[in-house]
């Protein structure tokens, strides 16, 4: 397994707080399994006498006693204090301690006055001290209520808020033990960028074996993972599960989601907004439109593994145990290229600025209108419009892919900012190469470029 991967910006910002000569409060939050604890631990590698306490679901008295045990290792004087959070935290703060309260929501669940205690300390007690308090939490909703929303006592007190997200594709490759470009895209398409999920993969296993052993088999470490994560956040998960299953199955706009789930259209906003806040759903609009104004939004699952799980695992019971590897080969492999294709499209979009370095690309995304759709669109600061078609099929992309792309592009309404005529650059991306006729055409036209899967992957590692 690799050592600590990526997160350089987050590490730098945390270390700046530790070196500050003022009292600092950091809030580190994000979904379970994203490596928040590892991030904070790495940031403390050169910090002496930090008090790091990992909370558990225990009584307040046990939590406080165990915190005192940890704090006393560096600050033995805490043993002389009253067993209450306020005097203990005040004592540590006045000695410029670095204090990490990991899984902070567990502490708040047992003592909801804790955010107010910290508020009072930062407002009045630490004027002449320079402690750093780091609050870490996996329950996004509880972290919002305790430290982030306007109604929280700690709102406005934090110097740093770190919303820890999944690793990008290029960082995830470090976990995959030098895969081929094709293997990398398939594994990324299934498991995404959650460090814990990637650590469960074994390089000597095939794709089928990795998927079966981790996700399909009931003994697999990831078999019930999305169910567990969601139930930590959602008190009434049934409707949320239905929405995620519908989106994973291809229902992407509100009408389709309402029809697939039976939830009234006017009631959907509450559920969709909550899932977006939890970083599980994302609303996309055509790249030529503004997110807050467009009425043509489509929803997608942001987590590749959640998308896989809701598509193939949710509700399957022990079906895959009975079939073994045949379950993957029979039920999943035939559908896998179509399933991974949207992931490949996103990788192509993310690579566009690297592949077109001479263009100042201001916005990258998808575009659609009616029956017309373009997988990759790059809007530039000049007069160039970059458009692309992605093919993740097992056969080479043919001339028809270029003709289709040109036809859709004629319907895309975009004018350069200076009001002049636009020029168009065409890009075709293919997993399996290109037909000879298309290769020949690309040599004849200076506005057409062809990119294989290996070039897309390489663009992410430059």
Give a quick precis of the structure:
Helix content is 45%, strand content 16%. The two termini are 23 Å apart. The chain has helices at 8-18, 36-43, 60-72, 85-94, 104-110, 114-125, 140-148, 169-172, 181-191, 195-199, 207-216, 225-233, 238-248, 254-261, 268-277, 304-313, 319-323, 325-332, 336-355, 399-409, 436-444, 453-461, and strands at residues 24-29, 51-54, 98-102, 132-137, 160-163, 281-284, 298-301, 361-369, 372-380, 384-391, 423-430, 448-452.
Label the structural class.
alpha/beta
Q: In CATH's first tier, which class of the largest domain applies?
A: Mainly Alpha
Biggest β-sheet description: 5 strands, parallel
Number of helices: 22
Give the overall form.
globular
CATH topology (fold) name of the largest domain: Arc Repressor Mutant, subunit A
The CATH superfamily title of the largest domain: Winged helix-like DNA-binding domain superfamily/Winged helix DNA-binding domain
How much of the sequence lies in strands comes to: 15-25%
Number of strands: 12
Percent in helix? 40-55%
The residue ranges in which pLDDT falls below 50 over 5 or more consecutive positions are: none
Task: Describe this protein's structure.
- This protein is α/β, with parallel strands linked by helices and 462 residues long.
- The protein folds into 3 domains: 156 residues, P-loop containing nucleotide triphosphate hydrolases (Rossmann fold, 3-Layer(aba) Sandwich), CATH 3.40.50; 168 residues, Arc Repressor Mutant, subunit A (Orthogonal Bundle); 122 residues, Trna Endonuclease, Chain: A, domain 1 (3-Layer(aba) Sandwich), CATH 3.40.1350.10.
- It contains 22 helices and 12 strands.
- It has a 5-stranded parallel beta sheet, with helices on both faces. It has a 5-stranded mixed beta sheet with strand order 8-9-10-11-12, sandwiched between helices. The chain has a two-stranded antiparallel ribbon with strand order 6-7.
- β11, α21 and β12 form a beta-alpha-beta unit.
- α4 packs parallel to α6, α9 packs across α19 and α9 packs across α22.
- The longest helix is centred in the C-terminal third of the chain and has 20 residues.
- The protein is globular.
- The two termini are 23 Å apart.
- The relative contact order is 0.08.
- The model has no long low-confidence stretch (mean pLDDT 94).
């Amino acid at each position: 397994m690799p050592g600590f991967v990526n997160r350089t910006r987050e590490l730098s910002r945390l270390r700046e707080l530790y070196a500050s000569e003022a009292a600092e409060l950091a809030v580190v939050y994000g979904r379970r399994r994203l490596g928040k604890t590892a991030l904070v631990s790495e940031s403390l590698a050169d910090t002496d006498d930090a008090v790091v306490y990992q909370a558990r679901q225990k009584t307040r008295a046990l939590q406080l006693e165990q915190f005192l045990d940890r704090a006393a290792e560096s600050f033995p004087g805490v043993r002389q204090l009253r067993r209450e959070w306020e005097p203990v935290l005040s004592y540590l703060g006045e000695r410029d301690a670095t204090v990490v309260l990991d899984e902070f929501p567990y502490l708040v669940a047992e003592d909801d006055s804790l955010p107010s205690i910290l508020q009072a300390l930062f407002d009045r007690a630490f004027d002449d001290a320079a402690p750093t308090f780091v609050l870490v939490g996996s329950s996004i909703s509880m972290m919002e209520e305790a430290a982030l929303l306007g109604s929280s006592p700690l709102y406005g007190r934090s110097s740093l808020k770190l919303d820890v997200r999944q690793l990008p594709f290029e960082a995830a490759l470090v976990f995959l033990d030098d895969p081929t470009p094709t293997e990398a895209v398939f594994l990324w398409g299934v498991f995404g960028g959650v460090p814990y999920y990637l650590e469960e993969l074994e390089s000597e296993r095939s794709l089928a074996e990795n998927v079966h052993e981790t996700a399909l088999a009931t003994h697999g470490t990831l078999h019930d993972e999305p169910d567990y994560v969601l139930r930590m956040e959602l008190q009434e998960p049934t409707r949320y599960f239905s929405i995620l299953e519908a989106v994973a199955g291809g229902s992407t706009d509100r009408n389709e989601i309402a029809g697939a789930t039976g939830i009234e259209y006017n009631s959907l906003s509450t559920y969709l907004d909550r899932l977006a806040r939890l970083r599980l759903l994302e609303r996309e609009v055509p790249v030529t439109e503004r997110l807050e104004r467009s009425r043509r939004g489509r929803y997608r699952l942001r987590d590749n593994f959640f998308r896989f799980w809701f598509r193939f695992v949710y509700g399957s019971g022990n079906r895959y145990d009975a079939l073994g590897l045949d379950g993957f080969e029979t039920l999943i492999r035939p559908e896998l290229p179509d399933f991974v294709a949207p992931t490949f499209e996103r990788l192509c979009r993310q690579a566009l600025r690297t592949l077109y370095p001479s263009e100042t690309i201001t916005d990258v995304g998808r575009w659609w209108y009616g029956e017309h759709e373009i997988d990759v669109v790059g809007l530039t600061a000049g007069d160039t419009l970059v458009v692309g078609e992605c093919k993740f099929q097992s056969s080479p992309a043919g001339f028809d892919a270029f003709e289709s792309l040109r036809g859709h592009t004629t319907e895309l309404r975009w004018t350069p900012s200076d009001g002049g005529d636009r020029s168009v650059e065409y890009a075709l991306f293919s997993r399996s190469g290109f037909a000879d006729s298309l290769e020949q055409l690309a040599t004849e036209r200076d506005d057409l470029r062809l990119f294989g899967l290996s070039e897309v992957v390489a663009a992410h590692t430059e």
